[in-house]
Amino acid sequence: MEKNWFVVHTYSGYENKVKMNLEKRVETMNMQDKIFRVVVPEEIEVEKKNGKEKLIKRKVFPGYVLVEIIMTDDSWYVVRNTPGVTGFVGSAGSGSKPTPLLDEEVIGILKHMDIENDKVDFDFEMKETIRVKEGPFANYTGTIEEVDKEKKKVTVLVDMFGRETPVELDFAQVAKL
To answer: What pTM value is reported for the model?
Structure first.
């Protein structure tokens, strides 16, 4: 049996709670060999409020969660009966097996979220000068001050109005000069 990605429908606004519930159930029901990843598709947007720019996470598909699983009766049951899950997308009835996403669809969604790989290739060094690729500081250059590999973030000192200002960015937002 091969792993596939499926779309699970949830109550809108409960996507992260469903992700947490499902991850707990996978652990308690010992399903790590059949249910692998649970992803809430999100993107980072710049929101202007009161003249200030703020980075916020916005759900790409509100009410939906992606799950990477090997579809068996057991794994289907665990996901389907997780609190907050209303069903699988692509199943004809309550008892039928759903249709998996196409590889291209999954790759596109995960790439958009910058999590196509479990490992993040971050080959920058402390004090290295980099260029900001996107976001409110796009095309600025700065010096790396801090790297948080767990959160996949980097703190960069950017020269703004003659002062060095620390800016926290995602790994995907910076590039070598």
So the answer is: 0.61
